[in-house]
Amino acid sequence: MDLYQLKNFYTLCINENYTIAAQKLLISQSAVSHSIKKLEESLQKKLIDKTQKGFHLTREGMILYEHCKKINASIEKASEDLQNLQPGQLEITVGATLEFGSTVLVKQLASFNQEFKYGKIHLELSNHLLPSLLRDEVDMIIDCKLHHHKDLNMIPLFREEYVVICTPYYKKINNIITPSNLDRCYLLSMDKDGNWWHRFYYALKEEKRPTLKKLIQINHIRGIINGTIASMGVGLVPKYTIIDELNSKKIIQLFPEIKLSEDYFSIYIKKEKKSLRKFRQVVKHLKRCSI
User: Fold this and answer.
1) Rounded mean pLDDT of 234-251?
2) What is the DSSP string of 61-120?
3) Could you give the domains of the chain?
């Protein structure tokens, strides 16, 4: 058993696929298979359960994988300690959702990159963040989705407030005064079934709820905002995404007295990485951010 074999085994475990592991390791798939076979022979234990469909570890494989996580964290810590002797060498990749990352986080990280003497921060934008974190493709993620995973730490950041919006023109021509008036309006929604509007729908008393029948699907927040600005209909979006448009009165908030359910943005990071100084610095900076 050597570090080369353990690295190959760990990479295979987090990707659960021989082809992807080979691509990450820059070796052939057969080289990965051979490395795992040699590791099993040296331990005289089966690590991969080939009797089941898909990728599954044996009990022994699970035990070794847990140790590999600690070994990988120790190697990262050693690398950090050595690179701290040479400022500018460290690199961190933060994953974030498309809208939040491009609207808010990029501005926060720009200032941090100027202060971060140890290196630089990269930003990976996606609406499917968890797999990248578990495969070590990013070092941490900031997400409003709740993730329960035994390998992750969650660090709460801030609440995400939602608002109902339209243009002053659209409000006037449709005479929008009460929520029930939305029945004569097009509602811009992330889905065709109206699930996107449920946080508004269930915030109302039953007799005041619109029917949610006139829906137009636009499956991106920025698309809903631009559709609203074009008076295509009424939108429902996170408030932080339209601060400039509200201030310029391109769009207005409808029914501000109605309290909608909120999402919560949190940082997710692997437990073994949380103690590293470079990640502690980033987390400390992000906890000072607000939207």
Assistant:
1) 95
2) HHHHHHHHHHHHHHHHHHHHHHHTTSTT-EEEEEEE-HHHIIIIIHHHHHHHHHH-TTEE
3) 3-82 (1.10.10.10), 88-159+264-287 (3.40.190.10), 162-261 (3.40.190.10)
